Amino acid sequence: MPDKNRWKFDWEFAMIGRMFVPLSSMHFSASESISDRIRRFNSKDEADFRLGDRYELVLRNVDANNSGHYRCVNNHERHLISQMYFLEVSNSKNIVELHSSVGNNTVPSVPLKSGIFEAEKLKYEVKASQLSKCSYCSSDRGEQTKHIQCYIMPTVNVPLQKKEYLYLNLYDKVPCSSTLVPLHLRKKLKEMGNHKIYLESRPCYEECTSEEEIRKSVNSSQDLGDIRTLDYLPGGEFVFGNILPRLLPPVVRRVQLVLENDPQVLSCQKLIDINAGVHWYSLRNGPIQHSNIHTLYANRAYFDEDTNLVFREFTMADDDEYFCYSSNNILLNTFHMRVVENDQHHQIIEVVRIFVKFSAFILIFVLIASQLYQ
User: Fold this and answer.
1) Where are the alpha helices (DSSP H) in 108-206?
2) If you compute the radius of gyration of the chain from its CA atoms, what whole number of angstroms results?
3) CA 279, CA 329: separation in Å to the nearest integer?
4) What's the pLDDT tens digit per position in 176-203?
5) Is residue 86 within 8 Å of residue 167, measured between CB atoms?
6) Closest of 141, 145, 158, 198 to residue 175, by C-alpha
7) Region of residue 252 (phi > 0: left; psi between -120 and 50: alpha; otherwise: beta)
8) What does the domain layout of the chain look like in residue ranges?
């Protein structure tokens, strides 16, 4: 008999130092009432996450409370973990930008160190990522990036690893600046300068590619083995039973109110199963690239290793609309950022005024009291 529980996977979440709790429950039990199912369906739009059409977990409005471990697990008559992730939320990273030229495939020399922590049976190594896809296709504005950073990993197999560091074996490699790294080791690595991420950017050119719609024949096999053509389907049309092409993800549109001088991270969603680059566009300033971001925003903004647009602080001049596109110009995200003046200096003035008024009241009270006692 087929195993009915084989594909019953659900997502679970665990904050650092806590147990896993369920995030999704797509496989109902017989004891669950109809009202529970209706309530769960109606609450989907209010949830902080959703499930994609390939059962991927999509988080909304990520903040520090979302930091922790995520896993896709089958707990129906088995305990099978399919995927496990650690999400770490941070407002800023120590990014050092490097610029290279077309065709230069050598890894740049960076002042990052490799070594071993003998007592902890851990090692730290410097590794470079693969070059990203070109940010534009069929355009001379294309850029691609590569990041170089320090990673920490065990030096021995699981049975020989110290108990307090066994969790590091759950992940392929852990950045040296991650909170997964024990604090005392993280401090040592920071003193070495291994907390920095070196981001190399270079110009590139890549032709746009698209899938060609193919005309298909609908055939039928006869009793004697002859194949008979029943119909011709033009490109883009399908019959029942065909695997349809994947739909593009819906555009994520956000309107955010930001206080002046507040930091902000604008994240661009990725096209799942499609290896494509991304680029950013500002309604006021035009294309935002590695080559001009510091000129446009006077070192207030930068790109991280995942091409997220990071603002160290927003000013009134940054009140704008920002758009994220794939390399073949598919719109992925829009951000309507509205910056309001930070009234902190007004609060300070009000506090000073209250203090002056209170001091004047005390002075007058003391003068009146001294006159009464004379």
Assistant:
1) 183-192
2) 29
3) 9
4) 999 889 999 999 999 999 999 999 999 9
5) no
6) 198
7) beta
8) 10-87, 95-203, 210-245, 252-340
> What does the pLDDT read at residue 41?
47
Asked if residue 73 lies in contact with residue 10, where contact means CB atoms within 8 angstroms, the answer is yes
Cβ neighbour number for residue 362 with a 10 Å cutoff: 10
Which amino acid, 312?
A: R
What tokens appear for 191 in the block?
């003193």
Q: Return mean pLDDT, the chain.
A: 83
Strands 252-259 and 278-282 come out as unpaired
CA distance 11 to 310: 29
The residues pairing with 290 across neighbouring beta strands, listed in sequence order, are none
Centre a 10 Å sphere on the Cβ of residue 93 and count the other Cβ atoms it contains. Answer: 19
How many helices (H) and strands (E) are present in the chain, helices listed first? 4, 22
> How is domain 252-340 classified at the architecture level of CATH?
Sandwich (2.60)
Task: In whole angstroms, give the CA distance from residue 323 to residue 8.
Answer: 37
Contact 196, 149 (CB under 8 A): yes
Extract the tokens encoding 7. Answer: 């594909």
* 308, 227 Cβ separation under 8 angstroms: no
> Please, are residues 318 and 266 in contact by the beta-carbon 8 Å criterion?
no
Q: What is the pTM of this model?
A: 0.73
